[in-house]
Amino acid sequence: QLQLVESGGGLVQPGGSLRLSCVVSGDTLDYYDIGWFRQAPGKEREGVSCISSREASTNSADSVKGRFTISRDNAKNTVYLQMNSLKPEDTAVYHCAADRDVERICTTNWWHYDYWGQGTQVTVAS
What we know:
The chain is mainly beta.
């Protein structure tokens, strides 16, 4: 029932910025924790950041703290990932996902999530 569609990926130079969007349909966003995940070829899926629906608290991977910011606009059923100071190692397919079993503090463990978007490619290169 729930659908998630990512957008905003592309090619950017190191040090640049991108903002990813995740538009949710089929249900109201505030019932779900939302996470951003990424996967590069040959590497395991990595939890990037998440935001809790109830308290809007966030968790982020150490590798992106201070550079990436997750936010939520429930009125637009959209979650954003603002990515600044991008590095080549940030290159990956980025997915958003929804966890119906909301938690006080959201988790970046991907196996907790029930619904997934198709992904958007982020490439950081000179």
